[in-house]
Amino acid sequence: MAFFLTLVSVALCYYSPADVVPTLAPYHIQQYILVPALLSSVGVFLMRRGGLQAPQWVLMIGFWFAVVMSLIARYLLRASLSAFMDFGLVVCFYFLVSINAFSLTRIGIFCRVIALCMLSMAILGIVAYHTGYLEEKLVMRQMDIDGSLFSPRIRGYGILNDPNDFAQLLLVALAFLGVSWRTHNLIVNVIAVFVPAIILIYAIYLTGSRGAIFGLVVIAFVTISRRLGKLLSIFLAAMLFAVLIGAQFGGGREISLHESSTAGRLVAWGSGISDIKHYPVFGVGYGQFTVYNDQTAHNSFVLCFAESGLFGYFFWLAMIVTTVLGLEALARMPRKTAEDIVFARYVITIRTALYTFLATSWFLSRTYNPMLYILLALAGVLIYLRRSSFPAVSAPMIRWVPVTVVAQATSIVAVYITLRLRGL
Length: 424
Description:
By secondary structure, the protein is mainly alpha-helical. Among the domains are: 1-50, no CATH class; 54-100 and 261-424, no CATH class. 71% of the residues lie in helices and 1% in strands. It is built from 17 helices and two strands. Strands 1-2 form a two-stranded antiparallel sheet. α15 packs antiparallel against α16. The longest helix is centred in the last third of the chain and has 32 residues, at 300-331.
């Protein structure tokens, strides 16, 4: 029951009844499902005994605490209570997935459900683009600064109503198709992988998202790098990048530091750097970035250190760092049995999805997006499943703490150098 309710709760993140059927908005169906999902998951956790995936669980709670503290430190007590509840929903999703996806079979079901949600939404978007059906909801027409009209861009429902956000989740769904791959079974691969991949890639093209270009390149690189080696994979990824630019992915818009919309994003990054200078410990507060800048950060890393300061940024990055270290250790595991090969396929799938999400998050404000924490939870389960037989997947604190501190400094410096290159 807990597993089923968790699946439904995750699916409703993207097919919210309030968006699909507006008359259902007053009933808050997702909340009514989330509560019994949490209660039944407590029983699952207690029965499993020892399902705690430290340190990721501790870091998740630490970041939740940092989110609330970022507002208390600014004396925004009422807002801190709202933040506790709002981000608490995301924390719930993280723990629900961590507790209930405790086997490869369940991880596979999670991946397929999310991929199916995105695939069906992609099909609706393609139909809306070509026929006009649901066009008012699923197709966005946007004006450039000079008054010219951009090509129509498809989008999703609810939290995916921005084409860039929609493209990011389509990329994750594309990576998730990896769990359905079957060696030496062409029919299954055509039906479950190739055909859905073509639909998803075409939908990504129709979103007109420039960040999606980088996401597709990351998927290609992570998928082939183990077989072909780093240098050849980098070369092929660069070739793919050139092909995608030539095919006018991203709506044919320029990819440059001097392009008009990019300039606006960099101004927001500059605001984030200013925020961390003035409020280095706890930041300006959760949800307060737009108080100091006209638009959001358009960078998940900038948004995190600007709103939660170095304190919260440490917990957020530490969750990513510990997960990445674990996944990289899993990727190096020997594959001696058929079970090892299947497990490796799941590692590649989740690793590809997470890296793709993080790469595209450099251009999007997705710090608090549920999908990031779902991916971290799924990766955490994989690490936990091999922790006893392969202890190297659990990085000790003496390793991940300095790596996190270096990642903090490197990311902030990278943003600052980018601004200097643009002359800001």
